[in-house]
Amino acid sequence: MARRARLVTLIALYAGQYLAMGLLVALPSILREQGASLRQVGVVSLVNLAVIAKVSWAPLVDRYGRHRGSGHYRTWLLVIQPLIVVTLVALATVDIGGGFTALLTGACVLAVLVGTQDIATDALAVRLIDPADRGWANAVQVGAGFAGAAVGTTGMFIAYQHLGWSGSVAVLAGLCLLPMAAVYAINEPAAGLETHATGRVGGSGLRAMLSLRRVPGVAAWAGLLVPLIWGGVMLPQSLMGPLLVDHGWHLGSLGLLTSVLGGGCGIAGASAAGRLVGRLGRGRVLLGACAVQLAATAALMAVAAGASGPAAVTVVAALGLARGAVNTVIFTAFMDFCRPETAGSDFTLLSAWGYAVAAVVQAAGPTLAGAAGYPTAIAVAAVMTGVALVYLRMPRTYGALATVQAAPVPKSSGGVRPEQPLQDAR
Q1: Which residues sit opposite 405 in a β-bridge?
Q2: pLDDT of amino acid 201
Q3: C-alpha 171: how far from chain center
Q4: Alpha helix (H) ranges present in 305-393?
Q5: How many C-beta neighbours within 10 Å does residue 79 have?
Q6: Does the pLDDT value for residue 147 go beyond 80?
Q7: How far is CA 379 from the centre of its chain?
Q8: Which of 119, 293, 367, 418 has the most other CB atoms within 10 Å of its CB?
Q9: How far apart are CA 170 and CA 416, in angstroms?
Q10: CA-based end-to-end distance of the chain
Q11: What are the backbone angles phi and psi of residue 308, rounded to the nearest 5°?
């Protein structure tokens, strides 16, 4: 598969995935507008925890699904994508005002399907992308995610206002059919039979997934560094909305600021990081992105103190740039650590712990601000990013990627030769 074809495939798969997730993000607000209780809204919001829970069934995606001629993860996508569409069509028939149980059930099914699609898509990307191209590939992933989320969530709100519940979900179901063309066109390479650079065959199942922690560099990066970085960016973002509302911003202006400007800058940050990773290395690009993140967090302190609109615009733009850049580098590093025979489980496990910490921090941010004030909550975010910068500069962390070698790739996939070392993180 040519480089451009792989690029188009990844854009279609990741954008389509975030389209479906847009419904899950928009659903709590729509339910509240329909008069649902806060308890019901809170229960539906918990559905998004499938992003973390998917690690429990990721080994099944690695272990089962092989079909001669179809490709292991391609087979999963050929099954999951139509099921997502069917689930959306079923949800379109539910009475949004009175069918809460059916709505919750459908949302849970959709969350599981989207989580499974994410596992298969990440694993497929590991197989499709050569190590030298992982920077731009993950820029595509992050950028398509920002775009798909903006279209899926914002588009769902707009369509709901004009078409109602059934019409808007039906339109979303139609859009989710589009990635099927990319799935059919995929020529998935098989996983090599050789062992990974760690000297072990990853195998399958829970035991193989847990053995990932013994891969050199995983504990330093995924265990501590990633949660610090993600927590440091998600905490200020969780404060931005309430802070600006408290300062008199209207919801319409706030939505444009966070979704359009923040999302657009996120795409720009991902694109820049994808280009720079190949030239400067993972470590240097991540250092720069974290520095921008720290500066934006410090600037948020001025907004909390009552600074004018331009300061808020600058902070949102800088946080978007930082988030797009750090995610691109982090996902590139995750691909480096993945073993091709258990790529779905590995990528999911690597990200699950960081997601969990970021979710807790994001949820606790407004509560902390209410109890101790916005400056204290912002200071906590700044400390997290500052510690991440210091930890990243330590030799044990900064050079971790240099110890990882590219997994052998079958010649038919056009991959690198066995035992080719990755570029040093520096």
Answers
A1: 421
A2: 39
A3: 24
A4: 309-337, 343-372, 374-393
A5: 14
A6: no
A7: 25
A8: 293
A9: 44
A10: 30
A11: -75, 180
How far apart, in whole angstroms, are the C-alpha atoms of residue 390 and residue 33? 45
Element of type H or E holding 293: helix 282-304
- Do residues 127 and 71 touch, judged by C-beta distance below 8 A? no
> Does residue 273 sit in helix, strand or coil?
helix
- The secondary structure of 95-155 as a DSSP string is -TTT-HHHHHHHHHHHHHHHHHHHHHHHHHHHHHS-GGGHHHHHHHHHHHHHHHHIIIIIH
- Bridge partners of 421, per DSSP, are 405
**Residue 160 has which token pair?**
């709901």
User: Cα separation of 220 and 213, whole Å?
Assistant: 10
Q: Which structure tokens are listed for 266?
A: 């996120």
pLDDT in tens, 161-216: 888 889 989 998 998 888 888 788 777 776 543 334 333 434 445 566 667 777 77
pLDDT tens track for 34-69? 777 767 776 776 777 776 788 788 888 877 776 666
Residue 142 in 3-state DSSP?
Answer: helix
In whole angstroms, what is the distance from residue 408 CA to residue 410 CA?
Answer: 7
Kindly state the average pLDDT of the residues 348-353: 82
The answer to whether 73 and 344 are in contact (CB under 8 A) is yes
Average pLDDT over residues 83-102: 90
What is the model's pTM? 0.74
Report the distance separating Cα 105 and Cα 127, nearest Å.
34
142 backbone dihedrals φ, ψ, rounded to 5°: -65, -45
User: Residue 94, class by beta-carbon neighbours within 10 Å (0-12 exposed, 13-18 middle, 19+ buried)?
Assistant: buried
Amino acid identity, position 191: A
Q: Is the dihedral of CA 306, 307, 312, 313 positive or negative?
A: positive
| Of 70, 84, 86, 79, residue with least CA distance to 18 | 84
What is the rounded distance in angstroms from the CA atom of residue 293 to the CA atom of residue 381?
10
Please, is 87 exposed, middle or buried when counting C-beta atoms within 10 Å of its C-beta (0-12, 13-18, 19+)?
A: buried
DSSP 42-98: HHHHGGGGHHHHGGGTHHHHHHS---TTT-HHHHHHHHHHHHHHHHHHHHHTS-TTT
Single-letter amino acid, residue 328: T
**Phi, psi (5° rounding) for residue 337?**
-80, -20
